[in-house]
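Reviewer 2 asked us to include a model.

Predict the structure of this chain.
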Amino acid sequence: VQALPNPLRRDMHLLGLLSGLRPGTLVSLRREWVNLDAKAISIPRMKSGRSFDLPLSARMVDVVGRALSASEVLFPKSEWLFPTRSSKTGEVIATQVWKEKALPSETGHILRHTYRTIAQREGIDHVNARLLLDHTVPGIDGVYIHESALFDKLLAEQERMTAATFALLKPETT
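Predicted model (structure tokens):
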């Protein structure tokens, strides 16, 4: 992914890996939903039908900040975090394609699978892993748990996930 020449595509895939967002949600992120000071992207409606505050680790804040800067230079005044230009009309639109021809098996939904696998590997609490992925928490826990009250804990878990992901990307040499 880091070898991709387009900086927005690079950051889009990196954010997908670090967040576990569904590809369709990732490409439809709007600039107005980003709050770097709060370390969150507040998505008003997810596949689940609920709103979702994605906690952003420090490295994710850097990725999103770079994407905001690049998209402002490449596509001024676009509402999208990862805009592109329509090949048919030439207008600026949200990215429609989340797979890379050069990396067909490493992009798209597989990044979500990778995120969940890393969470399991790191021993992230099962409920917290579900909340970070905007999955429904089954049983009575799903009725009584309020994600907004857990944001600080989920942010700490997101930091842990980011560190674990980068450790796998750049394994330490012994």
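The CA atoms of residues 18 and 166 lie 9 Å apart. The longest strand covers residues 40-43. We have added this to the supplementary material.
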